[in-house]
Specification:
about 240 residues, Rossmann fold, six-stranded mixed β-sheet, four-stranded antiparallel β-sheet, binds adenosine-5'-triphosphate, binds magnesium ion
């Protein structure tokens, strides 16, 4: 039996409330060393607990390990030592297939450079994110339309991302990230390519998602972005420090 099956007792009425006491994210002595001469210790034995509904920012200089951390949290990479529990599930023991299932169903991503499919419409970009996420087929279109309505893009459904403004593209990416009701939204420099007005729009959306109970981890260089978060974590040289 796979790790996912083991920990999925069946559909809960509200998955976000199902394990109230279990942190969404828990890192225990987690390290990520990249091989080389010399090897790079990008994360050095870090501990972190992110509870349900937390809004956490991670701020630190270039090369400090921010993207490495986000890739591990997003199950896109594996640590070289230590444990990562997602919703209490020990992800280190999970197969690649189980990790993909967890990622599709529980994690939403927003990247600095949007990562939209250029030859697919706005609606298709959001719809495609529902494919491997456990959203029933019959609900996919309505969910995608609702997500795009939420980010104020109902009037751009048939547009290609290439003709949208940067702010609009990032709002499509946010709709795509939340369409499957993830347990956590991970963002890597989400406002890095945006002007101040569009940054403010994306941050307002994050605030709204947070008010609705979503857990957010946002990686940034920008103090304006981290000011929105309820918890601020500084990363330097592969080590984390909570800022009071
Ligand atoms: N695949 C890799 N192989 C070797 N070293 C790597 C690899 N990926 C990252 N590193 C190194 O690990 C360290 C942390 O990199 P990371 O990308 O996490 O930094 P970052 O904080 O995201 O920086 P930035 O703000 O510039 O995006 C850096 O020293 C980097 O050179
Ligand atoms: Mg980075």
């Amino acid at each position: 039996m796979s790790v996912v099956e083991l920990f999925e007792p069946g559909p809960a009425p509200d998955p976000r409330a199902a394990h109230e006491h279990v942190p969404v994210i828990e890192l225990r002595g987690l390290s990520r060393t990249f091989p080389g001469t010399p090897p790079v210790e990008a994360l050095r034995g870090v501990d972190l607990r992110v509870g349900r509904g937390d809004y956490v920012s991670v701020i630190g200089p270039s090369g400090s390990g921010k993207s490495t951390l986000l890739h591990i949290l997003g199950l896109l990479d594996r640590p070289t030592a230590g444990d990562y529990l997602l919703d209490g599930l020990p992800t280190g023991e999970a197969s690649d297939e189980d990790r993909a299932t967890l990622r599709g169903g529980r994690i939403g991503f927003v990247f600095q450079s949007f990562h939209l499919l250029p030859h697919r419409s706005v609606l298709d970009n959001v719809l495609l994110a529902t494919l491997y996420s456990g959203v029933p087929r019959a609900e996919r279109r309505d969910r995608a339309l609702a997500a795009l309505d939420r980010v104020g893009l109902s009037h751009r459904l048939d547009f290609l991302p290439t003709v949208l403004s940067g702010g609009e593209r990032q709002r499509v990416a946010v709709a795509r990230a939340v369409v499957s009701s993830p347990h956590v939204l991970l963002a890597d420099e989400p406002t890095g390519n945006l002007d101040s007005e569009n940054s403010a729009g994306v941050l307002a959306l994050f605030d709204e998602l947070h008010r609705d109970g979503l857990t957010l981890v946002v990686i940034t260089h920008d103090p304006t972005v981290s000011a929105h978060a309820g918890r601020r974590i500084r990363i330097a040289d592969g080590l984390l420090t909570e800022v009071a």
